[in-house]
Amino acid sequence: MSIQANKAEQWYQEQVVEVLYGNVKGAIIGSSINIALVSFVLWPIFPTYGLLLWLIFGQALNLFRLYISIRYNNDHSSLSTRNWLNIHRALTCISGAMYGILAFFFFSTEHPLHQILVILLAGGMGAAAVGTHSVDKITYQSFLFAAVVPLIIRSYMEGTDVHMVVSAMLCLLMLIMLRAANQSKQIMVDNIYMSQSLRYRATH
């Protein structure tokens, strides 16, 4: 690969990381609110240390993600672009796994309304992440699979016809969200290169 191509790839990666970290605060606020609300609703059914630990870990993870975001904004030159990207990918995957854990271990067989709540939360967060993570394929897919696949498995384990249909519908929803994420990514990539082209023309 030529030096010019390397520079172009490096520049593109920097723009992707900038977009990802620019969306972090909104994602953290939404995640924090959802974790608190769901814990409050599920507590009468699962008044256990497990749910409390899930709540504490989830909010601690959000605080750490906020800290990393602030560090990036204040001094992103302290680490390479690749390292910042890998950190974001790892934290995003763990964040998705938080919803997967909730769906797998706090899926109440005796309370259908609470099942619906958990399904909407995991599926809804996967859909919402299209707007915040889709600029990087690995980031979005790791979040989506970690959040929704455990829900699909847990729903299927219930063994009823309804739950099997729900699992099938969630699989279909995942395919739709992956397609939407690819389309959203292409739009963002086009905007990134268009901005660079306009900047180049303005300065030359």
Produce a short descriptive summary.
The chain has 204 residues and is mainly α. The protein is built from seven helices and no strands. The radius of gyration is 19 Å and the shape is globular.
Q: Please, could you describe this protein's structure?
A:
This protein is mainly α and 204 residues long. It has seven helices and no strands. The longest helix is centred in the C-terminal third of the chain and has 43 residues, at 161-203. The radius of gyration is 19 Å and the shape is globular. The model has no long low-confidence stretch (mean pLDDT 87).
Write the layout of secondary structure elements.
Layout: H1 3-22, H2 24-42, H3 49-75, H4 81-105, H5 112-133, H6 137-157, H7 161-203
Helix pairs in contact: 1-4, 2-3, 2-5, 3-4, 4-5, 4-6, 5-6, 5-7, 6-7
Main attributes of the structure:
204 residues; mainly alpha; globular
Low-confidence stretches: none
Outline type: globular
How many β-strands, per DSSP? 0
Helix/strand/pairing category: mainly alpha
Strand content: under 5%
Order of helices and strands: HHHHHHH
**Mean pLDDT across all amino acids:** 87
